[in-house]
Fold this protein.
Amino acid sequence: MGIAVQTYAGYKGDERPVSFLRGGRTVLITEIVDRWYDPDYTMFRVIADDGWTYLLRHDMTSDSWDMESATLSPEE
């Protein structure tokens, strides 16, 4: 599912996501739990301010973002 993502742009360009739109609402990313790299894309497992954990994929070739999965984070 393609999504609109706001990123932190450091010296490498779009280094990491900071927020994205979901259902017309801006979701803020509170923590990047994990990230891994492939020559064509970067994956980010993030925790957001809505209590969900998301797996986001940044396609480097098309400069597009997709939400691969969303799971409700367990209550602590």
Observations:
- The radius of gyration is 12 Å.
- The first strand starts at residue 2 and ends at 3.
- The chain has a mean pLDDT of 90.
